[in-house]
Amino acid sequence: MRREIAERAAAFSAQAGRQATIAVVQVAADPSSVAYVRQIEKSFVGAGMGFGLHSLPEACTADELTGLIRQLNADVGVDGVIVQMPLPKHLPQSLVADLLDPAKDVDGITSLNTGRLMQGLGDYFAPATPAGGMELLRRYQIPLRGKRAVLVGRSNVVGRPMALLLLHQNATVTICHSHTAELSELTRQADVLVAAIGKAGMITADMVKPGAVVIDFGVNMVGDRMLGDVESEGVAQVAGYLTPVPGGTGPMTNVMLMLNTLMAAERLL
Length: 269
Ligand code: NDP
Prior knowledge:
This protein is an alpha/beta fold. Helix content is 42%, strand content 16%.
């Protein structure tokens, strides 16, 4: 996919006379956010795409943040904008969700894009992480129609949009969360099991139906090791497919951000 994107980015640059470009807004950089942004920069630059970082201090005001978003909305050299979450407590996420231009919302957080995704209207940007999970399922030709998909996790960035994307592919979808009773009974029914929990190794082999396709979105640092939400050694013995951590859904998020930024750029052109 990186190769495909690099070719498409070169074609865009030749036609437009500029690179398809993402702007990353970062308020109060913490170390994990800095590392993530560095990866985005490396991916974009590596694919011949543009990258700009706009940092604001933790104490910045709502006016400063909205001023920056308005400036990026108006900038014809910027095709995609993402705002690193979470924002400090005094800056509600709705500031961005309601103000960012949906045509530049390449991580699918605006009210318009989330609404269109909810209603299955098409022509929307889905959040990059679940979109990457869906792209893996598509590229590995995993059948979804009529299949039982079970998600553990219902956040707005991963679990919930992934559930909608699976529903749009006619899977029969069950969403589990921290109040779900008899979790293992539900996960064992899954043809496609999705973990987006944030708890290292929580999904164990006894929770997985033999042959199931398991998508692990978890990124948990335990000491210096990155572990998924799935206990991979055991589950790999039972599952038909299992995304690795690191190296599975994580890199796909970057790839989808590049793809969405290119789509935004091509549309603007
Ligand atoms: P959140 O903390 O926002 O959501 C976690 C979800 O898991 C919640 O819905 C919560 O339920 C549910 N949950 C927590 N504990 C349990 C439990 N014991 N049983 C059942 N459900 C439970 O996390 P995110 O969705 O933002 O992230 C999930 C994971 O994905 C994290 O490891 C994160 O680092 C990773 N991630 C990976 C990305 C990637 O690029 N691959 C990008 C973004 C995140 P409830 O709603 O009831 O609280």
